[in-house]
Amino acid sequence: MLIQLKDLILQREARTILGGVNLSIAEGEHWVILGRNGSGKTTLLEMMTGYMFPTSGTIDLLGNRYGECDVREVRKQIGYISQSMVEKLTLRDPVWEVVATGEYAFLRFYQEIDPAVREKALALLNEVGLAHTAEQPLGTLSQGERKKVLLARALMSDPRILIMDEPCAGLDLYEREKLLADLGRLSERDIAVIYVTHHMEEIISMFTHVAIVREGVIASAGPKRDVLTDEILSRAYDWPVAVEWSHGRPWIRATASGGEQG
Length: 262
Ligand SMILES: Nc1ncnc2c1ncn2[C@@H]1O[C@H](COP(=O)(O)OP(=O)(O)OP(=O)(O)O)[C@@H](O)[C@H]1O
Description:
By secondary structure, the protein is an alpha/beta fold. The chain has nine helices and twelve strands.
């Protein structure tokens, strides 16, 4: 098992944020996590990355149990892409340096960079189609390009697991499709992807499984075709919806209009 979450409970003050989460992610699977705002998706990712600890329950990642191992060592095998990550990067740093820092666990360099690390950063930039931006300050790149830089950065340490929290948020259709294409190519690598989104159409064919979080518990989890049904999704979103599959991707349609009167 790559990741095993058992009976995770997280209590803050009087609130139960996670109410007993169980989830197993095996080798060769790529998961999407769906759920309404505030259902607990980001909290789950923060637990998997060891940035938050549960009130009770266990988290095993690549055979390491959090609380009984050096979390920093485990984290080296995880690439994590989130909005808070973007905000921590320095916009005036050259793009290749931003990518290269992914080799280490820190955000900026204060010493000479190993030429081999630079070469690797440039190769990864090339893979995401951004080789030409290597010397530009990060701040001169579009939002979509910045997300690709983050993807390249996350791959620097050759992680076994890549965790992404809404990487396509704020991207236009073109930028989104380009990022998803880069992501799709990851299935050639030995890397498991865990991906949080609000947008069903981002569930590209590489994804094998879906988990739905609802009010701090897993409402449904399994192979994507079993989970992405009209019934399960209508319950998950508290709204009548219908799913259609096109080019191997699910598309969701609200079957009652929020704009209709009375
Ligand atoms: N440190 C905290 N203290 C108290 N409540 C918290 C804390 N962290 C998260 N929460 C609450 O836990 C719930 C789950 O938050 P989380 O960010 O995991 O949701 P989410 O599913 O990622 O939401 P979104 O889709 O809006 O990003 C929210 O109601 C949030 O307000």
